[in-house]
């Protein structure tokens, strides 16, 4: 059974309550909820240009070349002599005007349901922005008979007929444009099986979006439709005689697309970008508003069958052009875009959005951070020093963190894993999202896991490698270099595991105990299991326009035994020391940073503090860090303070806990997790 286009959208509903939707015509001033600043739109104040989109006559004998060139260089163009009757364009514009002139309470009779997509409502992307958009819309998927009957009890059949005729013409035009665009790349009918026996894409699915941008009292501070790309193959837009549509081009900024009578605007969507292996850009666009005239637009959003797997066409892939995207359905792509919308454009922000603006108070962090870090530094310990055990013990007791030199990890390997990280984070956002972590999983691309505990977003992105599943992700991302990059990770994991074991033995030695004194270590050794499970986290902190108000990674402690961190040559890591405040850990070439985690704090019965740390960002340079988090044993093996450390008189500060139980507790109470397992009558 094939899913419908409605199923695609309903699977990822974005419901915006309409109870507060204003009567736009009655407002004389712009409400604060509709007042936009550069914080609220990704490129609100970006420069504009007098350039214009390509204008293509579809009767031109060189039309395929012109369409292909426009798709490649712009991702958008205007067309004339397209075959859609001007009478039909007038009819659809009249229908749209009649709909939005109805009283609000009448329009709300056909409001979009919470679990639906068709009907009256606001833009679906509205939930991704702090401010509301100065517009209203009506979405048609399938038959609008029921909704139109609610709006026009006597004329609904007339308007349904207009929609049906409009959809038929647009379907034919979209198929024609698709072949013109792909034909310019040498793609033939035989290369796309789902085009159908007569290559008319009859299996394609579409939606019609009717938009109204009312007269606005302060258009310079309002936004009709915020910057976004369409999740379609193609979008065909008819706009009335009021300008408002703008498209973005990297080298020039925003370009207004003035309406030309009888012409249509065509946008390349995300799915055609994927199909062409990135040759055609998916154009970023938005709609501005006007203080003199309202504006109507009618968008035909055209996509493939909703359950069809879409991937780069084999004809556009060769040894020099590996596939940039994996196979996925439209439904899967929409789910990914809905989850990661904000990260699509992080690197292009010129000002700090409110959602990323931290007040740097106790409410935003575990500890009230000072505005400037102390000019102190954590210990740097040479592992070849004869007194290394004593030095490590002192550092763990006084700081909970230290740096190590002569650790035995080859510099070439550190360079390789840093290069791997840069290669990944330099990819387009859409490509990185192919490796997105699932809601239930740990591995994959996404925001820091601690983001759930903070109101504001963090200025960072990361790739977590927690188990063997990363191999499939690497195969998708780097099909030609898969073996090379997997080899780097495997070698890095092996070297780090050996180093972590070595550090554990030395640090325990400073307390007069050995690994053999750890009960659960003996159990795992007997069972043949690894002593500690591990995770590698690749982190990227992009250049930030306002670093003093942003946070790369909020203050936290690690839940593991030890964390070993390699950072690029840009400072950002800070650790907290009670008597000193925040201390910046400046990177030293070839030196690694080691943090004591919560489990080691438990193991040492509180003698070693689990260090609170965070990451700040920079205005001029991005920063890469690679964290190796060495955790506890798998299964039901319990961790508790080492009995030799507690001694016969105690007190034992923490009850036994499995690592999985502790992670579950920390997920629930975050920075109160250690308190949650503390023995009630224990005193330190």
From TrEMBL:
Gene3D superfamilies per record: B-lactam Antibiotic, Isopenicillin N Synthase, Chain
Record-annotated Fe2OG dioxygenase domain positions: 200-304, 531-632
Domain of life: Eukaryota
Signal peptide region: none
Entries under PROSITE patterns matching the protein: FE2OG_OXY
Keywords: Iron, Metal-binding
Name this protein carries in UniProt: Fe2OG dioxygenase domain-containing protein
Organism: Brassica napus
